[in-house]
Specification:
446 residues; alpha/beta; Rossmann fold; binds magnesium ion; 20 helices; binds guanosine-5'-diphosphate; 434 Repressor (Amino-terminal Domain); flat; eight-stranded mixed sheet; Four Helix Bundle (Hemerythrin (Met), subunit A)
């Protein structure tokens, strides 16, 4: 797909060379290479400009890690910025939680909405979630047939009311039907148009208001070139999307649209379509995509090895904190965030003993954590780092409740959760101390 970028990066590395450091001067030509390659891949010009600027700023701002040559450093910065541009973080973005999850499909005609609706249903079904598909494209009779056939092929029920009923009404009834059936997810397919127009946006807005979806996914054809940015902006402004699905990635498109989605809307690509079959849907991993684009796996491994030794120092600091038995609300939140980043509660589901957890319980648990987070954000620095003051002061607890829009009972619950986690951490720190005493007597004696 991005062959040119990969080749340009090699050229850029030669231009920078292995001596010295990265400077505005020696990056000038290499940055031009990156810029040209991105434009050739149909990435929109404003997106390219911002990207190149960020790479330059970041490359000048980062300190060079020992044992890494400037050319490798440059590749690393481009790679990190690419990952950031496509959504950042680790792993793929999940669908938003909900009970039921309600997923609204949006996008122009022919981009692959109906196909993607079927693919998502199969994907959810494979993770043991039941689905209902809802057909609201009343403008072409064949569109309803298409969804009915897809549903039959993957054994997912399809709700339709023919072509004589208003799409908003169908969507609303469809979701009601989903609730009645007790399905885990309702996927609402919609009609597209050849171009962005007010009719389509109006209808989408009305459907969205009627069904209040947990996800509104913009389906984008990977072949969309320069227009991708404008398209994403129009849909995002009209219906505030939660993410995108990039279809037809199996084709020979240059795929520049992949880079525009996040930059323009701030929303992640959640899935990619890689064929016409129902199985041809993959989660979108920004990191994998970036290394595919750059095709420079070895370089990055080298860099990561150098970086790992620095990360070790960070880990050491965490251990030291544990040893001192410090555990405040910042730690509480960090602990939870780590869990959440790893797929959070969904991970729990795969652990023995937890696999009886229902979707609803998972959803409730995720909501609970969101409440905790809102209360912790409402604390001042002293309360966050020294929870004792909150335990002692009723008026502080009341203020936190008020400022975060929660009840005092919720704050009490948070204090209990904090105390429970702290005692667990206390146990861990004792274990660490024992371990350290056993393996490293000289240090333990200090
Ligand atoms: P809609 O108008 O947005 O609902 O688009 P459809 O779902 O009807 O898809 C339009 C055409 O694109 C169909 O022929 C699909 O088979 C095809 N299509 C959809 N997704 C993909 C994909 O990921 N790869 C390929 N090669 N074709 C796709
Ligand atoms: Mg369709």
């Amino acid at each position: 797909m991005f062959d040119n970028l990969s080749r340009s990066m090699e050229k850029a590395m030669r231009l920078i060379g292995k001596d010295g450091t990265l400077t505005a001067e020696n990056m000038k030509e290499p940055l031009k290479e990156v810029r040209r390659a991105l434009l050739e891949a149909d990435v929109s010009l404003p997106v390219v400009r911002r990207f190149v600027k960020r790479v330059e700023e970041r490359a000048l701002g980062t300190k060079v890690i020992q044992g890494v040559t400037p050319d490798v450093q440059f590749v690393k910065v481009v790679s990190s910025e690419l990952i950031e541009l496509m959504g950042g973080g680790v792993g793929a973005k999940e669908l938003e939680p909900g009970f039921p999850q309600i997923i609204l499909m949006a996008g122009l005609q022919g981009v692959g909405k109906t196909t993607a609706a079927g693919k998502l249903a199969l994907h959810l079904q494979r993770s043991k979630k039941s689905c209902l598909l809802v057909a609201t494209d009343v403008y072409r009779p064949a569109a309803i047939d298409q969804l009915v056939k897809l549903g039959a092929a993957i054994d997912v029920p399809v709700f339709e009311m023919g072509t004589q009923v208003n799409p908003v009404e169908i969507a609303k009834r469809g979701v009601e039907e989903g609730r009645r059936l007790g399905v885990d997810a309702v996927i609402v397919d919609t009609a597209g148009r050849l171009q962005v127009d007010e009719d389509m946006m109006g209808e989408l807005r009305a459907i969205k208001a009627a069904v209040r979806p947990s996800d509104t996914l913009l389906v984008v054809d990977a072949m969309t070139g320069q227009e991708a940015a404008g398209l994403v902006r129009a849909f995002n402004e009209a219906v505030d999307i939660t993410g995108a699905i990039l279809t037809k990635m199996d084709g020979d498109s240059r795929g520049g649209a992949a880079l525009s989605v996040r930059e323009v809307s701030g929303k992640p690509i959640k899935f990619v379509g890689v064929g016409e079959r129902m199985e041809a849907l993959e989660p979108f991993y920004p990191e994998r995509m970036a290394s595919r684009i750059l095709g420079m796996g070895d370089m990055l491994t080298l860099y990561e090895k150098a970086e790992a030794s620095i990360k070790e120092e960070d880990a050491q600091r965490t251990v030291e904190r544990l040893m001192e038995e410090k555990f405040d609300f910042n730690d509480f939140l960090a602990q939870w965030k780590t869990m959440n980043n790893m797929g959070g509660m969904q991970m729990l589901k795969m652990m023995p003993g937890f696999n009886k957890i229902t979707e609803k319980q998972l959803y409730e648990a995720e909501k609970q954590f969101a409440v905790y987070e809102s209360m912790i954000s409402a604390m001042d620095e002293e309360e966050r780092t020294n929870p004792e003051v909150l335990i002692k002061s009723m008026s502080r607890r009341r203020r936190v409740a008020q400022d975060s829009g929660n009840s005092e009972a919720e704050v009490t619950k948070l204090m209990a959760a904090y105390t429970a986690m702290k005692s667990q951490v206390g146990g861990m720190s004792k274990l660490l101390k024992l371990q350290k005493a056993g393996t490293d007597p000289a240090k333990a004696a200090q």
